[in-house]
Amino acid sequence: MSESGVETAIAAVCDEVKDLLVRKNRAYGNSALAPLRIFSRADPVEQLNVRIDDKLSRIARGREYAGDDTELDLIGYLVLRRVARALAEESSRPLVRIGQGDGQRDIRT
Q1: What is the 3-state secondary structure (H, E, C) of the chain?
Q2: Tens digit of each residue's pLDDT (9 = 90 or more) over 20-42
Q3: Could you state, in order of their start, the residue ranges of all structural domains in the chain?
């Protein structure tokens, strides 16, 4: 396979992961990054870690549910974990007020 063919294949897999995550986020709401917390009080990153552990366990034991794509789910959870960590980092940065009058606004440093 040529280098451009590999790049096309990489882009196709990334698009598949993106489409899955966007579709599930629309279907279930933002449940991965903003869970209801009915039973668990763990933060979103820790909850994603548990889901990742579960998927890795299924792969290691060779016990996947029929119809599931455990590998694709795992990749999706890793992407969500990365997003959750980035959002947590962003929200922990302090706000700084810039501008004056009507042009005044707050930004994260």
Answers
A1: CCHHHHHHHHHHHHHHHHHHHHHHHHHHCCCCCCCCCCCCCCCHHHHHHHHHHHHHHHHHHCCCCCCCCHHHHHHHHHHHHHHHHHHHHHHHCCEEEECCHHHCEEEEC
A2: 999 999 999 999 999 888 999 99
A3: 3-95+102-108
CB 76 within 8 A of CB 20: yes
The pTM of this model reads 0.77
Radius of gyration of the chain (CA): 19
Q: Which two tokens stand for residue 70?
A: 């455990």
Instruction: Determine contact, residues 108/90, Cβ cutoff 8 Å.
Output: yes
Judged by phi (left if over 0) then psi (alpha if -120 to 50, else beta), residue 101 lies in left
Enumerate the β-bridge partners of residue 108. 95
